[in-house]
Each structure stands twice: as structure tokens, then as C-alpha cells.
Records
---
Amino acid sequence: MHVGPVTIDYDILVAGLRGDTGFTSQEFIDAMSFSLKYLRKLMGADETYQPFIIPGGGTSAMESVASVLRRGDKVLVVSNGVFGDRWKAIFNRYSVAVDVLKANPGEYVKPEEVEKAVEEEKYSLVTMTHVETSTGVKEPIGEVTKRIRDKVDLIAVDGVSSVGAETVKAKDNQVDIYLTASQKAIGVPPGAGLLVLSERAVSRLSEESVAGYYLNLKNWVDVMRNLEEGKGSYFATLPVHLIFMLVKAFELMEREGLENRIKRHERVAKGIRAGIESMGLDIVARKPEAYSNTVTGVIVKKANPSEVLKAVVSEGLELAPGVHPALAGKYFRIGHMGWVNPNDAVTTIAVLERVLKRMGEPINLGEGVRAVQNTLA
Amino acid sequence: MHVGPVTIDYDILVAGLRGDTGFTSQEFIDAMSFSLKYLRKLMGADETYQPFIIPGGGTSAMESVASVLRRGDKVLVVSNGVFGDRWKAIFNRYSVAVDVLKANPGEYVKPEEVEKAVEEEKYSLVTMTHVETSTGVKEPIGEVTKRIRDKVDLIAVDGVSSVGAETVKAKDNQVDIYLTASQKAIGVPPGAGLLVLSERAVSRLSEESVAGYYLNLKNWVDVMRNLEEGKGSYFATLPVHLIFMLVKAFELMEREGLENRIKRHERVAKGIRAGIESMGLDIVARKPEAYSNTVTGVIVKKANPSEVLKAVVSEGLELAPGVHPALAGKYFRIGHMGWVNPNDAVTTIAVLERVLKRMGEPINLGEGVRAVQNTLA
Amino acid sequence: MHVGPVTIDYDILVAGLRGDTGFTSQEFIDAMSFSLKYLRKLMGADETYQPFIIPGGGTSAMESVASVLRRGDKVLVVSNGVFGDRWKAIFNRYSVAVDVLKANPGEYVKPEEVEKAVEEEKYSLVTMTHVETSTGVKEPIGEVTKRIRDKVDLIAVDGVSSVGAETVKAKDNQVDIYLTASQKAIGVPPGAGLLVLSERAVSRLSEESVAGYYLNLKNWVDVMRNLEEGKGSYFATLPVHLIFMLVKAFELMEREGLENRIKRHERVAKGIRAGIESMGLDIVARKPEAYSNTVTGVIVKKANPSEVLKAVVSEGLELAPGVHPALAGKYFRIGHMGWVNPNDAVTTIAVLERVLKRMGEPINLGEGVRAVQNTLA
Amino acid sequence: MHVGPVTIDYDILVAGLRGDTGFTSQEFIDAMSFSLKYLRKLMGADETYQPFIIPGGGTSAMESVASVLRRGDKVLVVSNGVFGDRWKAIFNRYSVAVDVLKANPGEYVKPEEVEKAVEEEKYSLVTMTHVETSTGVKEPIGEVTKRIRDKVDLIAVDGVSSVGAETVKAKDNQVDIYLTASQKAIGVPPGAGLLVLSERAVSRLSEESVAGYYLNLKNWVDVMRNLEEGKGSYFATLPVHLIFMLVKAFELMEREGLENRIKRHERVAKGIRAGIESMGLDIVARKPEAYSNTVTGVIVKKANPSEVLKAVVSEGLELAPGVHPALAGKYFRIGHMGWVNPNDAVTTIAVLERVLKRMGEPINLGEGVRAVQNTLA
């Protein structure tokens, strides 16, 4: 129950056991073609969007967004925590201007605040974080884009902790760039960033962009088009073995159905929150509308979060540390994405009950798991 | 017999079958610690060098060298082909000046030419390519550094097609940055760039560098130090599963012995060249001192190289296309690195004999393999 | 939570990924040597016992016991259920006389009953079943052997559902033949029977035995001795890949410690029984002293056991059908052996609570898991 | 290039990576159903034949043939070597009479000799060995059955080293029992015996047979019928994980086509024999009509065969020892079955050339591989 790499199904891992598959092999080309096509579906995009699968992960995918910026462009960063702030840290390395709208920990920047900001200033790009991994807070992407779509040039959304577990509608919400990483709700090892770009975003790729070389989408766009069409193509070496795992993950997704997959995540998340609350602990996300399907921050009262993380490992559970500086030392995170199921919700709460009780939290053993059971019945 | 990803030993691939290992787990931290330490040994570096293992591959590792450059720095690129030229393409995206010394295809830039260039101009950085993957040509790194060491600030060497198969002496040759990628002579899937930096190079990492964010080694240096010391640390998600494979590859290397490993590569390379020459074909590298242990370019006479690549696949052999523009349509490449052995040399030549004869090359069936056998006896 | 093949750790499964290991390879010989030596330890045997690892499973290991019998021998079978009765079915195929002592379902044959039987008749062999897989009932082996040891020739114990999860003392209890199968509490795929034979039992192996060929231990004894000494040896092909998995399982056992392993099984079994009882359901084994660490039979009231088995599969849980004819249609079995842990106890009861409630059992949701939690606290 | 377990394709091995699949799971039942049906096709049998897949291997499958015999039956064993003699050793353990027709090493019993024998005596069963693994000699099954079919009750053929690599026609040749093992030309790890029985053979299964329990096909026949029809069924635990590998192997066979598969084996065998002969060495099988597609015995002149076996291992090649007592110390065996391809023929001969020359054989380096190349051109 980590936030990433998440627990991975062995059927996916073994799909990468390819001893001698080069990047020019037809099997690899076919695997990329399938993955690129499926990525559109996963992102709620259509044929007008260009999919990209590039080496790296979430941060490199975010930095590749610089490919659409030119010297002097203005960017508005809508930040709900550590990974929202990361957009700013990235753009600060380039010759662009960055403004930031910042939410209190556990809250999200309100759609009307974003609207106000884009009315006061003309931005080339607005970035948002669908689910902020540091707090588990979800931004209402659709409500924001409805208000700002006509007032900004490009909109980019970091879907690292949402794609594959939350409803994602690149096209309907008119998002220009939606991105994620392989090791989160897709449930594959780390090693790739995945993006879709609208036609408008693709048209911004040019020699004049501020981007560097490896993460410059201009260098990758023809490779992606060729591979999707079944033709070998090379710019830099792609993570060949990971792509075969991605194909397997996408096949499992398709078999489950994307809607069923999202409902499964909802069910597990609901169970976990019910268990946490019935133990008398606080959730970092302050209001139900900010809850996400993928990450739950848990504020402890008496226990030391880093001691909790160590103790649960010996009970067969892996959790993630809290990383939001404003809540340092006060919380830990439960990741519930990828191949999680209701049994994981039960187990997670059962282990936490026992461990937290031992650490002095006023737990009534059995109350947490009962609450989970009630949500699952 | 591809140039990369190369054929990978299954013991290495299965080392990555880790269903639930997060980046905060002790197993992962230990794996990174071991790998970083071993990387120094592999590079012929000592404790004064800082090792890095970062997501991506060869090109991203090359781009991360921008971390030591500042606005206005002058760089000399010593290029023997496509991947030499890539250094220039990378630095052109940054505010630095780039001069290039270029060799004819199949040749390498002579040490005295490099010496002359650095005497005429003061360079912050000179880059070289140990083995040029596009042609299989090896640059005599030690001879160059002897001549230029005192006349330039920093020296960086792309060891993508050499590290693990050729003698690499970062320390003895006073190279400041030696880099490679996981999927070449190390014999692991693609997904990581590996570098060592001298103290001088590390001292250049700063807020003022021209580098971006993800590939900026300043953002990674503390993470690498912490992980080597066995402490969890995070900047961006590392390719967790790949690192476990890297550990296995390094363990196998250690069991074989680095010198034995290089001799094995030499033996296979010699066998392959003997086979090629006895078939009456030309090798792209023009002189024996330019031969490498890892890549052999083969110039065909009557056959169409891309047809050869297709035909050998149905005989169970995978080769790589020629990519040097000056030799377009005239050659293909044999990669012989990683876990290759003398039997691979025999098989490769045997398949080529049969396929090339069918395609009209004047082959005397059996002469190629006999030549291989004679080198192996 | 099946009774076998049980859920298997992937580290064990991947240990069998050996593409080209023949039965004459040193790796295989070493793997057999290690496994045979470790088998003695696992069985509580000493150097005077001869270990055997032969193809097949529990039933073939039982039949191989015919290797110590001669025409006209008398055998006493102590049967607590289906697999006790199997001893009789086997011996009936040979020219020996068989008497059976039979317990009521859920009970075991009392030590004093066995004592009485062996006082009335002279038996060459008495067979017992340590844990009867069909009911989960444990026979008190030590108490029986204490009473009968001096009155019978040979004692054989079927430890199929006990070895690796219950205290097994071949030597201390003076058992002549202790046997098990790979796919039960050892936690390896099915494919091998494992036995230890006392010197007395080995001395009975002869041309005159009633046994056939493949399962005749006389044909295997020299092979086992040679392999243990590191020498290649052949009678019939051993399950090479499985042996590498067995080595891994034994290494994991050694790392855990055999006593810790038994305690872990006890803890899980106790948790499961607490959950079952707090749901108001009956356990097949009628008294606590008959409880086993490995199998729990559960008698349902309103639900149809075969419907329960189907329903839990869709909740990610696999259980085993009841097979005792006297309880046909009344119960199902929970296997809790191999690599089970307390989280499995929680999950099993949580799924059962939800499924059984849906099927009309008078379950108070949360009571079962609370009971498990209390035993684990 | 071992005679078994042979080198196994990793796609087959990884198909066995099933962590939690019990014998009652639908996946396993489906896997058995598919495998049983495919086995008929592989054996050249039709719907009138009953397929069996039982634990063990070749020897246990041979012993299971006792299921069709009754006390006092007469059996004729047609033996071309060690595994022919094994039929006699097996039947000697049962109350049946056994006559043996024996060929000189390297030869096979002539069809007319068998005909003569069955005319002189009435036999309930005649057994033959399609390819004798100890010598690589092939018996002309069709020619024998044509002559004897009407004169004997049942005919059983050991196809251990033929099924999957030689033309097998159970139906057309009116063979009643054709058997093989998983680890030979099928190319799966050891662990299962596979048989088809004609209606006549099935009708002989009865309580009165001389067979024991585990290898008594009467105990398995309903299980096989149920599993083929998709219904769970149990007698003793089947090698669940191996069955998933078998499915994969059968799928790969189907993709290749059985005829193509046999041609591939022929091509490799021919290449190997050409290499051996051009090195001036003798083949154990004395005449071309006795050559098999799967095993070649090689008689050396100066080298010590057991030293050869050790030496080739360090060159990456695994061969098998000679086991025919009449040729003790004079030969070794090359297995060429399963997933072998022409490159294996080249490699095998190349390694042998180098190793045997070193050991004093009068080898002209390169002649062997040239001969292989000529057969492959």
C-alpha cells in the first residue's frame, strides 16, 4: 500500500521477461503501437491527441511540458502541495515567468480562485495536479477548466496519482496535456512517463521552445507517430522491457473495464477511510469532495509516523511517509492504487489497528475492520 | 547480437520480479548502495569519485553533463559519428558554445588533433566517445587525456558502448565524467544512466548551471550519497525493479572478474571480425587500432542491409541497422556485448554466411565459421 | 487458503526458472544434496535416517512404503478420515493383510485403542496420519508411538499436512518412516514426495518386497546416497526444476527458523478458528487437542458449501471443498499452511463474513474479524 | 543439448509462475482439458483414444501400462537398449511372464523377428521403444505393427524420445498405448507422464489388474474424463504448475505446426550427424534407417567421453553420458529435441570440434561446422 512503485501483479512483471528483444524488433514496435493507442483511451482523449510514452517518470513527464513553452512565457501553477510546487521548481530552471496559487495543506485551490487569476493575467500555460500525492487531495479538474478554458492558452494536468483510478477526461475537459507515470495507478514498475497532447499543444513543439534535448517532445513526436503506425523509429532508447509490462497492464485494464477499475479504487478508498475514521484518526484531505481514490493521508495523535512505517513492515504492510513540509512529523500516507482490492483495505486497517494500539493510540480493536466490512458488505 | 538492448541473461531479468518493493524499502536502499559502490569499480574510479544512477539511458546521462556547465562556457566535442554528434545537438539546446572535431566514418579523431584544438582555445569541457556505437570505432581515451589533461577544465567520456567490455580507467586517465547506460555492455534492460563524477566535476554542480531539473545532477547528488550510506532518500522515483537487476548483473560481473569479462568480449569480437573478413566483407572501422570489443559495422557488397536484418531474424539472429548517414544503405551492425560468448560468434557468422550467400554475396560456405573456430581454438 | 497446492511465494517459483539444467549438472546435484540433508532436519531425523526425494506427491510417497513390506505381512492402519483410509486402499493392491482402526469424523483414534490393537495382533507396520487433510484433525503421534513402539516392527506416519507446520520428531518419537509432499506446508508446487527412513526401515528394502518398480525405494536408495554425496546418479528422471524451488523454500525456512515457522502457523490457525467460532459456525475437529495448524474444516448452517467456494473466488479467496463422505455437503475446508501470515487470517475471515452473511448465515458483520484481531494483538 | 530435461524455452517456464492456483480452480481445469485434447492430436490418436496426464515421467508412464495386465499374462518386450530392457525390469515386479527380443547395440529388432515371435507365442502385450534414448536408435513402429497387429492383444509404444519430434501415428498404426514424458521432445520440465489408450486398452482397466494404486490408470480414468469435460475431479494431486507450462508448450507447437516441428528436428539432426561424420567420428546407430531426430550417440576414438562432457560444459554446452552397458566408456550422447534450432547444431559441432581436437582426436578445425552449414544452406 505504497504510493509508488505500487504493488505489482506478477503477470505484469513476467511480461517483461524478454531475453532478446531489441528496439527494432516487430514485437516491440507492436507493443508500442498498442500502448500508444490505449493511452488515448485511458486519458479520455481522442484521435486529435498525440500520445507519448517516454523514459523517466512523473517528474520527467512534467518537465517535458517545457517543450510547449517559449522564452518569456507566463505560467500559472495551481499547487495543492509538494508536487504542485514541483511545477514551479521545474519552470524556474527555464526562462519563463511563474506565478503560483497555493492551497492550505489538505485543501485545494478553488476553481474561482484560478478563474480570478487568469482573468487578471494572460498565461500561456496553467498547470494543475489532479491528485496531489503528498496529501491525497483531489482538484476538481472539470470545474476549473470550464471556468478558465477560454482565458488561457494551454492547460496541463499532472495525473500521476489519478490516471487509471479516477475519471480522466482530457477531451471533454479540454485539457491540452494530461500526463502520468507507469508506477502509479497503472501498476507497472517505474520507468516511463506517459502523456497525451492536444493538437494545440503539439503545434507549440518547435526549435524555439525552451526545452532541452532528451525531454523535448519535439524530438519524440515523429518516433511516437511511426511506432503507432507499426514502423521502427529511434530517437533514444525506450524502456523496451517495461513496454511489454505496460501492454499486459493495459490488457488487464481492458479486461476489467476502465469504469469497473475506477469503481474498485473507489470501493477500496472508501473502506480505508471508513476504517481510519472509526479508529478516531484524521484524514489529511479536509472535506469529502477533496478525497481521492488513490492516496489517503492519515494524521496520528500519539504515535510517531516514522515508527509506524517501520512497525507495519514487520506485519507485512508497506506504507509511505508524509512529505508535506507543513505537516512534517504528523502524518503518513496510504497508497491505494493499481491492483488493490477490498482485501487490501481490510488488511491495511487490521494491521494499523494493532500497530497503532501498541503505540498508544486509543484504538478499540476490531472497530476499524468492522467499519471497513460495513462499507464492503 | 543487437547493439542494445542486448540479449539479457534470464537470471538478471528474474531479479526484477519484485511485486511489492517501494522506494523506501530497505531492500531497495541496499541495492542502490551496492550498485553505486560497484559502479566506481566498474569505471576504474576511486572514493574521490561520486557515482550516480539516474533514470533514463545514455542520452539522458549525456545531457546530465550540462549540470557542470554555466552560461557562456565553451565545449569541444570530439566526434567519431552519430553519437559524437549527439553531444553537440544536446549542448546546442543550452546557452553554451560548441566546437566540434569530426572524424571520417570508420576513423577516429587523432589525439594530436584534440591536443591542437585545446591549445588554440580554452574549453570548459571536452567530450569524447569511447566506442562510437554507430560505427564500432574506439577512441584511444588514455592517449588523448595524456595530451590534454592540463589544458582543459573538465573531460567527459561517453562510455555507453565500452563500460563493462573495454578497459575503463576514469581515475588513471583523469577523466572527470565517465558515463554509460544499463542496456549495453552491462547487460540489463534499458532504464538507467550511470555516471561517475570527479571531485572537480561535483564542485561544478550549482544553482547557476545551465541544466534543467530532472537531469540536473545537483538535484540527485545528496540522494546518491544518502542511498550509498544506506539511508532512504528521494528526489524523483528511481527505476526500482531495474536496480535489482543491476545488482544481479554486477554480482555476475564480480564472479566472472572484470578482466575476464573484457577478455571474453575481446575473444568474441576477434572471432566475429575473423569470420567477417574471411567472408570477404569489409569492417567499418578502418584500422585494427580502431576496432572495439562491442560493435562491428559490416559493409556488404551485393546484399541490401535492411533485407539482411529481416532475413537473419527468421534464422534466430537479431542484428542492428547501420545509422551513420555517410554510410547509409551500405552496412549493418553486429553488437557483441553483455552476456555474449564464443558460441554467439560462431552462430552469428554461420547465419550470416547462409543468408548473405542466398543474397548473392560471393560466400564460400564454411569459410567464415572455420575462421571463427581458428581464433577460438 | 487452499489445502494444496497452497499459495506459493514467487521467490520460490522463480527459483525454478532454469532453462538448461540437466540432471547431470553440478547445480542440480548440489541442489539435491542440500535438499536431502535439510529434509532430515525438517523431519526431526538424524544421520541414521536416509532421506528420499522422489517424483510424485503424497499418495506416491505413501505407496512407496510398500517397499518395506513382504508378501503376507500384516499392516495396521490408524485412520481418521479419507487419507487414513487411503493407506488401506493402497495396501489392498498388494499381497499383505490390512486391519483398520477408524475414528468418527472430527475425532482421532485414541492412543490406547492403537495400543490395544497391537497387543492383540503382531503387525509388521502401523501407519498413522499426523494431520488428516480431510478433516483437519491431528493425531498425537508421540503419545501413540510411546505406547506401541516396542510392540510393532515398523511405524510410518503420513505428515503430508503437518511437516513444516507442526512439530515433527521422527527420531524422538522413533518413527521409521515420515513422509510428506512438496505442495503442502513446505509451500512448493506439487511434484515430489519426501521421506525419511530409519535404519530399520532401510534394512527392509529388498528384492523380496511387494513393491513395484518406480515407487520402490530400493531402486532409489543408492541414487539418494550418491546425490547427497555430490555425485551424479540416475534411476528415473527427478523433477529437476522443482528441486531448485525446494532449495529456495528450505533456505527461506532456515532463515525464518523452524520453530518460528511452526509458531506462525499456530498464530494464523488460532486466528482463523477464533473468527470461525465468533461467527457462530462449528469446526469439524471436535476438541481443541485435535486442532491442527494447517487445516480447519468449517460446518455451515444455512449456506451451501459448494456455493460458498464459488462466491469467495470472486472476492479473491480460494478455499477447498469438504471431502469426508460422512460430512458430505455440510462443510468446506480452509488450508492455512505454507507462506500464510496473520493478514491471511484477517482476510479469510473478512471475506467469509461477507459471503456467508449474503448466503443467509446469521452473521454479525465485524465480529469475526474483531475476534481474529484479538488473537493477533 | 541434453537428452532430458532438455533446454526449455523461458516462455514455457514462466507460464508456471502461478502463485495461487489450486487444483480446484477453473484455470487449472481448463488447462487440463486443453492439454488432454491436444495430447490426442500430438499422438496421432482420435476421439476413440483416452488421454492421460499423470504425475511422474517416462518410467512411471511405462509402469502404468501394468494397469492393462492381469496375473499370468504374457508380455513380449522388444528391446533396443537400456530403456527397452526397462520394460522387462518393470514387468518382473508383477505376476506376469516376460519374453525379450534384444537388438545389438546400435541396431533395432527387425520387424520380421517380432512377427516370428508373436507367431510362436500368444502375447497379451507387446512393448516397443520408438526411439531408444540410450543409443538414439529408431524402431520402425509402423512396419512392426502391420505385421503383428492381428496376432497380439495389445501393443504399447514408449515414445519418450519421439513424441513431438518424430511422426507418431497411434491410430493409423493401431497402437493401443503410446506414452511419453514432459521433459523430452515436448520441451517442458520433468514431472508428468502422458499417454493415450485405445478403447481396447481402456477396457482392460479393472480391479483385477496387477497394477498398484498411484500408477493404476483405473484410478485416473474418470478424473481425466471429468477434467477434459471441464469438471473438477481428484484422485491424487496433479503437477498443477507443470500443466500450465504444458499448455504453453502445446500452444507453441500448434503455432509452429506439428509437421514443421518434425521437419525442424530432422534438419537439426541431419546437421549434427553431418558434423559428427565429417569429424571422422562414428554414430552409434549403425544405419541411416535407424537414425532418430532426437538423440545421436557419438563414439569417440581417443578422447574419454566423461572428460568430453566436463570440457564442453565450460564452453556453454551440456551433453549427456552414454549409458548402454555394451558401449560403456566409448560414447556420449547429443540430445537434439524440444526447442532446438539449426544454430544449436552449429554451436554443438563447433564446441565439439574444439574440445575433441584438444583431447587428441584427429580433427581438422572447421570441417565439422562446414558440413553442418552445407546441410542447412
Note: Chain D has two domains: 10-255, 258-376.
---
Amino acid sequence: MNTMTETAALQAGADGAPVEPATPSFRDELIASGLLIDTGENGLYGRSQVFEDVVDRLNAAITHLGADQDPEVLRFPPALRRTDFEDSEYLKNFPQLAGTIHSFCGNDAGQMRLLRCLDDAMKQSDDDRDPAWMEQQKPTRLVLTPAACYPIYPVVARRGPLPAGGSTIDVLSYCFRHEPSLDPARMQMFRQREYVRLGNAEQVMAFRQMWIDRGSLLVSLLGLPVDVDLANDPFFGRGGKIVADSQRAQELKFELLIPVANADSKTACLSFNYHMDHFGGIWKIKCDDGSTAHTACVGFGMERITLALLKHHGLDVNAWPDEVRALLWGDTRARIEHGLKESGA
Amino acid sequence: MNTMTETAALQAGADGAPVEPATPSFRDELIASGLLIDTGENGLYGRSQVFEDVVDRLNAAITHLGADQDPEVLRFPPALRRTDFEDSEYLKNFPQLAGTIHSFCGNDAGQMRLLRCLDDAMKQSDDDRDPAWMEQQKPTRLVLTPAACYPIYPVVARRGPLPAGGSTIDVLSYCFRHEPSLDPARMQMFRQREYVRLGNAEQVMAFRQMWIDRGSLLVSLLGLPVDVDLANDPFFGRGGKIVADSQRAQELKFELLIPVANADSKTACLSFNYHMDHFGGIWKIKCDDGSTAHTACVGFGMERITLALLKHHGLDVNAWPDEVRALLWGDTRARIEHGLKESGA
């Protein structure tokens, strides 16, 4: 797969004829600079040490931003138990995005068949290879994590009722979504950091408003434009629009949008989600008064925020504005605490 | 799934009758202490903040241990391009361990069928659910990373010949292996940190010997027993024993083994692997003189080393020996540099 050719194709004219791009795309620049490493697959990139360092420093800033909430820190591998995934109703809304994990469970004869299929396929060019060898792959009991908070609900449910004030949990995970794209901000595998609040409706709505304020504070301290807007998830199929309209009418989802890949369109870099009692009902998570728990989360798209910084402040991290460098590589804690105090967020 | 029942079953007598375990298993202790979080699926655990802090500190120690090698730091998501995975010949050796990623690619009618299958399955108990809804899942172009170094070979190959001294690369990734187990040291998803050396045979063999010495140094500084032994990979099928014998005869793999789950058996916590020109040949990685590159790697099992520490020094990290605490949470760099100087490793 040739990246330049593909990018040019994306920029083809209305008649389909390739148009020489006036400037290299942001994706091309990221790859040429070595910040992202092309794997040949759209939406799957390696990250350089510089890129990872920005992600690490952003994570530290987000930790300070939420420290007064005394969250429980939990970390999960990027997969869920399949039955938990099935229970979550993700397949009702986003079947096209999920990734299930399959393995070979056969014997010697099965492996011989598999290798013969594979040998035939490998006579073709990479993009034309027939995946017939995968017909023997059987479903395992694991599904890739679609959003960082999914593993926590069944775990919290098993602990019994929430404490009186509810719970706040801090998670971070690689997530998978099957949406190969040339937009570097739309990866198939990316990291989400989340704070998740479980409690009654009032606690959870207050949490979401606080994080709209705190997320906006962080983004403004990073020298990026702040634009929070009502949003909806990409629900599947013909019925999807109705569900999306309903989600908007109920104001369940807000996003903080920043131009990343180009100036004309904006990318959701943070999201602020109220799930009502959806997860609480599925897993029978109870408040201390016996009522079904409501939940909300704030999600930080770690790659997307990093890409927004690279787009707005340039690919040379050392040349970023002093204030932004001081926030990330200086006394991060003091600057975050000062920002919280000044803004009241 | 009931963990206690399963653990008891593992400890069943020869006649299959359950035997009351004299003491809780290490797995039970890890879960009861909250260091690992049970997901209900063998080999898939959440990690507590304390567990993750140990992993982070180990990673810092490993960074200092390799700093004088000036490695290139690259980080990849936990998946490979499928064609690269196919090229790697992993399916010849370990088809049973690989995890391929599949997605739903159908339309509204397909989703309706999927949801009907799923509704039927959900009438059963978790363990009896029929995964028939997954029959519509189609292979994607991604496969889960089986070992942290796999993504780098095709990337390095595309850069052209290696520099004169060869290359050293630092990688870290979650890896997947389909081997559900009650042994907490045998996870389905776990992190490997690796240094990978690419160069001529002499450079690569010197690297491996250096890392046998440095890995042993780290483990002794951690207050753990050092036992390095010749080893082989778990090659699949009837022919697997022949390949394993050949690997041993050629002394391609060594492991550093530490008792983890119990005192009677040892777990490979580090491995030291010489691939000869296997990866170099597949991806046509060339040395500066045009010869095919040889490769070797040292792999640190991050969860396994953490579990070894918890087994040998106790579940209360604050009560670990002073020397171990000083290494991990004190001046890690100075202690590692001192250890390297003293040992000549």
C-alpha cells in the first residue's frame, strides 16, 4: 500500500482524476517527521519516543486535573470477556466497529490445511491475498475493548452496592474500532483515558458538568481552541438516525472539538457522556439506597489531543509555546492546580 | 465462572474428587488483595494502581539498564498488519496461540440476524452461550501482536540497509496468546518490554550474551533467584518436538526462570532469543555490507516479573526489602549504573 498514492486518491478531483496535492497532508507530514510510523495499514501506526512522551505528559496533567476526586485507578488489558461485551448491547448500536478475537483450535491436519491456504494466498500481492486460511479460526471468549470504561461495569457490579457518595474510577486502555481511515485522528487502535462516575443521577450529572469545565480548562491551558458542542454516537444502520436524534434530544453526549487533520473539519478530542441507567441496569449496579446506579464518563482521546497539539503548535515539540511546554514538562501539578483555582472548574 | 471452584478443581485428587486446598492459591491471594481484578475469564485480569506502579518502576529500571545502548524507542498498538503476520511464519510454529481480529461487515438485515442469534444465546448461562452470532464476523486486516518485537521488522526493512553498527530498538506492547490458564503468570493479555538487536551474527550474539548478564543483574538486584537455562518455544503439533529439539541443539533460546505460582515449577520471566537470519530473511533486512541481517531480542515479561516480586517479597509492596524498594522507588538510575559497573555486565 502506497501512502502517497492513497492520499492523492483522497484528494482526487470530482471526475476521479488524481489532483496533485498542493501541500502534503498532515498524515504525510506526521509520517515523514517520524512522529507516526506507517505500518501500511490505514489507522494503524507506530509512535515515536517524542509522540509517546507527549502522551505521557498529557496523562500526568489529566491525573492532576482529577486528583481531588480521589479516583480508584484500574487498568485493564485491551480486551473484555465476550459475555460482558454481549451484555453491554454494543452490538445493537455499533456492530460495525467491534473487533472479536478468533483463534485456531484444530489439530495437525487442520494446521496443514491452514498452511496450504496461506501458501496459495501468499502468491498474490499483499492487498490481494485471500484470507481463506482464516475460515478455520474459531471465536475465543474475548472481544477487543471498544471504549476504556467497558471493563469496569461488571467488575464494580460484583462488589455489591456503591458507597454512599458513589464511585469515581480512572481507566486507560488501548481501544479498537474497525474504521480504517486516512485521517490520522481516526485510528483503529488508540488510547482513551477516562474518569467514570457511578452514583445517582444528580452526582453523575454534576460530574459531567464539572468535566466539561475541566476538560475545557485543560485544552485552553494547552493553547488549543475550545469548542464544546452537543453530539451523537455513530449508530449503525437505518434506525441509527432515530437513536442519534434521541441521544441529541436528551443531551446525553457532548464533545470538545478541535480542527486536526485540516482546518475545515473538527475532531472530537474529549467527550462527556451521560449513560443514564443503561450500564447500571444491565449489570444491576446499585446505589447505597438500592436504586439503580446512573453513570457518566469523560473520555480523553490521547492520540487525538497529541495530534491537535502537533497540528496547532507544529511538529517540533521543542518549539511549542513556552506556556504549553511549561504545562507539560514543567511543574504540571502547580499549573493545573492554579488553573482549577482561577477558573473555579 | 466461579474462581474458587475452578481453583479447587485444579487441585482435585487423582480420582477427580475435589480436594479442599490446604492454603489459598497465589491467584486467589492476588485477587483477594485487589492486586489483580478477576474478570471471570482465565488469564484476563484488571490491575490495581499498586500493581501498575510496580510495572512502571520496573520499566524505568529496564530503561536505565539499556540506556548506554542508545536504543531507538518505538511503541506500537497491540496489533499487526495481517499480511506482515502471515509473512512472519508464526502460523507454522504457533497457530494455536495467535489471535485474529474479526468484524461485522454486513447490512441492516445482517445485524437483525446477528441480534436474533445473540438474543437466543443470552437465554443460556454465561458459560453455555452459543457464539452463533459470530458466524457473520469477517476477518479484518489486523492480527493481535504475539510478541512485542513483531511490528518492528517490516518497519525497519522499509528504511533500507541498517547503519554500520546495526540497530537497537526498544519496544513495549500488550501481547495476546490464546492459552487460558489458572496460572496467574500465564495470561492471555500481558506486556512484554523488549530490546531488539539487528546486525551481523557477531553483533547480535554479543548483544544476547550481554543481556543474559544484565537481565541476571536486574533480577539479583530485585532480590530474586537467578536461574538461566536453555529453553524452547511451545511449537505446535506432532512435528513441534523436532523443531523444539533443533532449537535447543542450536542454543537459540535461553530463559531466566523464577518460581511464581508455586515453589515446584518455574516461570520464564525473561527470555533471550537469537533468531539467526529468520526475520532478516523474511523481510530482506540488510546489513550495510549487503548481507542479510541477523536479529536477537531480550524480552521482559512485565506481569511475570511483578508477580515474582509479589510472590517472593509478599503482597504488601511497602514491606518489601529495603534494597528492592530503594532500587525501584529510590535513585533507580544510580543503583542500576552502580550494578552495571560492579558486575561488568
Note: Residues 201-221 of chain B form the longest helix (21 residues).
